Structures are given as structure tokens and as C-alpha cells.
Amino acid sequence: MKSKIIKEFTRRDFIKSTGVVLAGSMVSTSAFASVLGETKSGKRRVAMVGTGSRGNSLYGKFLMKEYGDLVEFVGLCDSNEGRVKYSKKNIGVNCPTFTDFDKMLDTVAMDLLIVTTVDATHHEFIIKGLAKNIDVLTEKPMTTDETKCQMIIDAEKKSKGKLIMAFNYRYGKVFTKLKEVIESKEIGELISVDLHWYLNTYHGADYFRRWHGLRKNSGTLLLHKSAHHFDLLNWFIGSDPVEVYANGALEKYGKNNSFRGTNCRPCVHKDKCSFYWDMTKDEESMKLYADNEKYDGYLRDNCLFREEIDIYDKMSVLIKYANNVEVTYSLTTYSPFEGYRFAFNGKDGRLETEEGIPWRGKENEDQSNIHSTEMNQSSHATETQKYHEIVSQRNFEDYKKTELPYLRSGHWGGDKLMFDEIFRGQNEYPTFHHAANVRDGSTAVLIGIAARKSIEEGRPIKIAELTDLVPQVNKWKNI
Asked: Ranges for the Gfo/Idh/MocA-like oxidoreductase N-terminal domain (predicted)?
């Protein structure tokens, strides 16, 4: 038997497929078509609450650049008046700005509300938007505890508006290919999944500098970061989680250091601190955050060893699904490299992929730039990694390797494809259920909430304990 190496398509074709060229060939059968249909003006009136880095970049400048023919910003809101005024100029829109969300909601006619605030406040704006019968597009995680989750579920049931979850990882080219292989039953019926995600000492550490380091804001990284991963798992498996058991601890950051300061810029320990970040070299951060500290005191370069940090920096989770698939998951926040390892075990074979493992490439990547490159929207295939490699192997047969041209930027190309579906109603894989709704947002955060409760209470947590959602064996059976 000989192994097979399959190159999916050329790099030029791959780049084209993530851009405007592909739009004409996509199938317009989006689950969002009825939600985001055309308005009388021909453009959707969009307002956004939360003008931090994500609001400015993905939902601001990128949205206007790629979809300015379809959307018009009619309002921007942030609790920090300096930041929201800067964002108006930075995004390049001409609309009123607000520090009072209720005032914006009551005075601005909008078709879509985008929520990109601190995680623990998402529910407030989602619920108020739905109460006005407005469609709401929210960043992950949908919310941070089970009470707020139930409130959002109830609010959407009463509303004519719909909640759209911005789960862009689903749309990533490499993840869509994994979904395709799983759906083809090439490895048979899925029985278990192993997922290990590694955040490096630049990206992982940065969560502990920011507001995310306090669980009252983020709900821990089991919500803020892992919601992406839990949603991918739910989507791949096609079933609902029923039970979660987890372990976690704070052992590297926070109080686990011999010295600390208030924030990096004035710190007396900068010469000996491996985690020192010179914010003054980041022009965008200086204009967005440093210049506006006087309004609310928020420090973007907080010390990641401050004693008030109370989230976990290592986490492991066991998840059981309604269809009996079992998952082993871990998240590391101080890895020397950034990447992941996926393995899917089926009754007839195994499917694997990995990314970012240094010894797999010709040379080491600059770890300090990996996350920023992921967030931008240009391709960055490198000599280090030219292809995503997906390996499948059926029992009693040799392995088959599939090579996809490497694309990490724009969340593996997912940002553009997600927005194509939301705003243009286009998706080349309509049967894959990329579009994420309130149930998807709920099941993703309920895993994180259950994991946090499991760590705190030292016991397995049933998903059914948390909200009135009834786990389904096949999550798309009734769609």
C-alpha cells in the first residue's frame, strides 16, 4: 500500500477563494438570508457598541472596506468618550457617537446592532437590542454565566430580531476541510476527539494584561478563548454536550511571581521582566488606549503579575456528548509556540491535523507576530509552513495526506467568509451549517460555564443543570 498526498488546489485558487472573486460562485442559501435581507435604503443601518481593538479592526475598518456597499454605520457607542471619538475617525465613518447606549438605541434607527464590549456585559446589549426587535451580531463568547445565558435565550424567543454569533473559526478553510472529511464518513462514525490548543508567551500572556484577567469581566478563558474551540467541537461533532468535568489552576501569571508593578510603561522591573511589553512602539494601542486612559483609567499594558488576577492559566476539560462522542481538551497560555493539535477517532479510522509546531517547519516563526498576523486580512504563507496538512487513515490502509495552501490571516480566512454569509447571503457549503445562532452561542458557553463550575465544585456538571436547553443527539435534526 502507498500513502497518498493530495493537493487540494493551487495557492492562487486558494487566495481567490477567500476574496471577492469567489463571491459570484457561492450559493446564496445562507441561514442569514431572511435575517439580513435588503432594506429600503439598499444598505443595512449598523450601530456598534464597544470600540476597542476588535470593534475598530474587524467590525469597523474591515467591514467598511469589504462591505461598504451594503452597510452604513449610523452610531458608535463606548463608555470611554475619547475612545469612541477616535474610533469614528479611525474606522472612517460619519455617524453620531455615544457614551450612553440607551440613548443611542432610542434615537438611532438601526437594522443591526454589533456587540463587541467586555464579555460580561454582552447580555445587557444583546437583550436590549432584541427587545427593540433588532438583529444583533455579537462577538464570542455570547455571555459569561448560565443566568445571563438563559436571559438571552428568553429574549430572543420574544423578539422579531435574531441573534447572530460571530463564530468565524467555523468558516476557516482548514476547519471546513476537517468538517468535510468528517461528514464524508471517511473515518466512519466519530467516537472521540482530542484537541490541545497552545497560546504562546506573547498572545497567551496578553490576556492577563488586559481586562480578561479578571473573571468578573471575562468569565475566565474557558469562556473568552475556549468558546471558539468549544463551538468548533460542537460543530464538528454535530451534537450537544451533556456533561463536563474539568481541572484548572493559576500557576504562572498573577501572584505567581517574585515582582510586579502597576503597568509596563513606568515599571522599574522592565529590564529583568521577560514579559515586558513596550506599548509605546504600538501606534494603534497608544492612540486607542493610552491617549484615553484619562477617561476611565483603563491600562492596556497592565502588569500580568498583579495579584488581583483570578482566572486560570492552565485548563483541561472532558466533555461527553448526547451522541456518545467524548472529547479531551486542554488550553495552555504560556507555551513557547502558538498552535494546536486536533485528532478525530472514528470507528473506521483516524483524522489529524496540527499547526504551529516548530520542528515541523524549516525554521522557527517569530512568535511575537503570530497573533497579530492572524488578526489581519492578508495572506501570509511562509517558508516555515506552506501548507496545512490533514492526514486521514482508514483501518488496515495506509494514510492519506491532504495539503491545503497555508492561510492563517483573517482567522484562517474565516472572517471574510463569515461576513460573506452574513451580509451577502453567500456560502459555498450550505449544508455544513456554518451560520451560528443563539443555540450555538449557548452550547459553546455552557461548556465553559460547566467547566468553571466543575473546577470550583470538584464534580462533573450536567449541561441540563444550567439552562432550559434540552441537549439533542443531532443538533440539526429540526432545522
From this structure: 45-166
CA nearest to 428, candidates 65, 176, 185: 176
3-state per-residue secondary structure call for 376-410: CCCCCCCCCCCEEEEEEEECCCCEEEEEEECCCHH
pLDDT tens across 216-234, in order? 999 999 999 999 999 999 9
Q: Tell me if 436 sits within 8 A of 165, measured CB to CB.
A: yes
The superfamily in CATH containing domain 26-168 is NAD(P)-binding Rossmann-like Domain (3.40.50.720)
Strand order in the sheet with 135-138: 97-98, 71-77, 44-49, 112-115, 135-138, 163-165
- Nearest CA to 111 out of 91, 126, 93, 133 is that of 133
Number of H helices, E strands in the chain: 19, 16
Measured between its terminal Cα atoms, the distance across the chain in Å is: 42
Burial of residue 287, with CB atoms counted within 10 A of its CB: 0-12 exposed, 13-18 middle, 19 or more buried: middle
Give the three-state DSSP class for 126. helix
- Do 117 and 94 touch, CB atoms closer than 8 A? no
Q: In which band, very low, low, confident or very high, does the pLDDT at 6 lie, cut at 50, 70 and 90?
A: confident
- Give φ, ψ of 246 to 5 degrees: -145, 160
Biggest alpha carbon–alpha carbon distance for the chain: 69
Query: Residue ranges per domain, the chain?
Result: 26-168, 169-253+310-465
Distance CA 177, CA 175 (A): 5
Hey, CA dihedral for 165, 170, 172, 176, is it positive or negative? negative
Q: Which residues of 67-76 are buried (b: 16+ CB within 10 A; e: fewer)?
A: beebbbbbbb
Q: Which of 312, 199, 314, 213 is nearest to 260 (CA)?
A: 213
Distance CA 421, CA 17 (A): 14
Q: How many CB atoms are closer than 10 A to CB 405?
A: 20
pTM for this predicted structure: 0.91
Contact criterion met (CB below 8 Å) for 253 and 311: no
CATH class of 169-253+310-465: alpha beta
CA dist., res. 348 & res. 186, Å (int):
8
- pLDDT tens column, 418-446: 999 999 999 999 999 999 999 999 999 99
3-state secondary structure of 351: strand
Tell me whether domains 26-168 and 169-253+310-465 share a fold. no
Give pLDDT, residue 382. 52
Q: Which of 412, 151, 448, 413 is nearest to 329 (CA)?
A: 448
Give the pLDDT confidence of 50-108 residue by residue, as tens digits.
999 999 999 999 999 999 999 999 999 999 999 999 999 999 999 999 999 999 999 99
Question: Which class for 139: exposed (0-12), middle (13-18), buried (19 or more C-beta within 10 A)?
Answer: buried
